[in-house]
Amino acid sequence: MTYQEQIAGADKLIKSFNGTWDGIDAEAVARMQLQNRFRTGLDIARYTAAIMRRDMAAYDADPAAYTQSLGCWHGFIGQQKLISIKKHFGSTKGKYLYLSGWMVAALRSEFGPLPDQSMHEKTSVPALIEELYTFLKQADARELSLMFRDLDKAREAGNEVEVQRLVNGIDNFETHVVPIIADIDAGFGNAEATYLLAKKMIEAGACALQIENQVSDEKQCGHQDGKVTVPHEDFLQKVRACRYAFLELGVEDGIIVTRTDSLGAGLTKQIAYSREPGDLGDQYNAFLDCEEVTDLASLRGDVVIERDGKLMRPKRLASNLYQFREGTGADRCVLDCITSLQNGADLLWIETEKPHIEQIASMVDRIREAVPNAKLVYNNSPSFNWTLNFRQQVYDRWAAEGKDVSGYDRARLMSADYDETELAREADERIRTFQKDASARAGIFHHLITLPTYHTAALSTDNLAKEYFGEAAMLGYVKGVQRQEIRQGIACVKHQNMSGSDIGDDHKEYFAGEAALKAGGAHNTMNQFAA
């Protein structure tokens, strides 16, 4: 409904109570309704799932229409990100949120900082989803509150042109609520545990769940060693559990992102069950590193399998884990991805050890032979040294082309000594265009950075601490923070407004009329920032 239709509907309802509701103002009701567009997390999940589906179709038609997100570990961080996006770009189109299990473990666990090994409370994940959307909804309420105040001023001034402009802006208001891709790790247990957690995440508002093919109780960060994968059928049980959760809750177009860690995972906890040669279990087992058994007396509690008519013993570590043959990671990734897409996944995530477009594309090309519209979510990870990686890529290309690289030490390319060189400039340009180029060449629909706001919080705090506790003292805060907030138009420079003080004043006026004791009067120090 339009703003005027919303008011009319509220007015009709109020009048139906024969005067007993006359203390309720219809326009105030309409305003509060507009400020709370999403009543439940499921409303958000359904709304944002539709956005992602449209964006996926747009990418299929044009790879330049890729999407992006930044990982956020607190509702305020997510809120400020979306406020900033609207300020700078005028629209949130194609911009999502990412919820990182790593950041939940490191920053939101009641145990304190933990490694990314699924040791944090599983309930902290849906709790953060709910928190993020609470802050985004508050951003809606705040922006609309400012528009309502401007509308009242325009009416008082008799400026009908401004009144119509503001009403049109209210009718076409773009919400800060955007899709969230939420990390469910390896499911935090068996398929039933995955289903139960998936339901909580969806109920909190998640429209996209990212699940990985590691063993739950051996789960490692994607950029650390010691990763252990599971057979495909075990993983697909959890994929199906996520789909059942979406369907049960009425989010029929919910998105499942299946992540494969096979490129860096050299171990498996179990041998896959196989019914016949060439089936999925047999294909998984074919990657095992085995040795032929020629002496039965050498077997001591070993598991043996048949391969090409021979009795083979998979190599097993003291940890009771089996290892894969070296050099099979890419082949296993391709099989993982094709299998996932053929069994209900919507998007893929291939965890790589470096940001190299042709490495990613070499796998995606093979996947697309089986599933032509295969699309990736890609982690533009802070675990990569982007500067060093791209400088080395340029160095290697130059060397292969016969270009003189004698002025560069490949092992020292991270050094600031090279910052103003031709090689560094070319590397930086390749970093700048990485997302566009990778989306065009390697099928990447969504680019995210998992932990950016973890690093920005640390960096900005370090800079402030160095100045404030040093010679600059209070000038360190004023010059480095507040002056920049004012000049760059950062919304939270008016922190009372950002926390909801003005919205509270609106409510006081709705509830108490002229008797309202409001905080936003002439003596509120936030007025110092009016200019």
Describe this structure in words.
This protein is 49% helix and 11% strand. With 531 residues, it is an alpha/beta fold. Strands 12-6-4-3-2-1-14-13 form an eight-stranded parallel β-sheet. Helix 1 (3-15) crosses helix 2, helix 8 (191-204) runs parallel beside helix 9 and helix 11 crosses helix 12. The longest helix has 34 residues, at 124-157. InterPro entries: ICL/PEPM (IPR039556), Isocitrate_lyase (IPR006254), Pyrv/PenolPyrv_kinase-like_dom (IPR015813), Pyrv_kinase-like_dom_sf (IPR040442). The active site is at residue 221. One of its GO terms (biological process) is carboxylic acid metabolic process. It holds the Pfam family ICL.
Write the layout of secondary structure elements.
Elements: H1 3-15, H2 26-34, H3 41-61, E1 67-71, H4 75-89, E2 95-99, H5 101-107, H6 124-157, H7 160-171, E3 180-183, H8 191-204, E4 208-212, E5 228-229, H9 232-248, E6 255-260, E7 267-268, H10 280-285, E8 290-292, E9 305-307, E10 310-314, E11 322-323, H11 329-341, E12 347-350, H12 357-370, E13 376-379, H13 386-400, H14 422-432, H15 434-442, E14 444-449, H16 452-468, H17 474-488, H18 495-498, H19 501-512
Number of E strands = 14
Query: What's the tally of helices?
Result: 19
Strand content: 5-15%
Low-pLDDT parts are none
Q: Taking Cα atoms only, what radius of gyration do you get, to the nearest Å?
A: 28 Å
| Multimeric organization | single chain
End-to-end separation in angstroms reads 35 Å
What characteristic shape results from the CA principal axes? globular
Helix content percent band: 40-55%
Strand line-up of the largest beta sheet: 12-6-4-3-2-1-14-13
Mean of the pLDDT scores? Answer: 93
Indicate the structural class. alpha/beta
Q: Can you summarize the main beta sheet?
A: 8 strands, parallel
Protein name: Isocitrate lyase
Keywords: Lyase, Magnesium, Metal-binding
Cofactor: Mg(2+)
Binding site for Mg(2+): 183
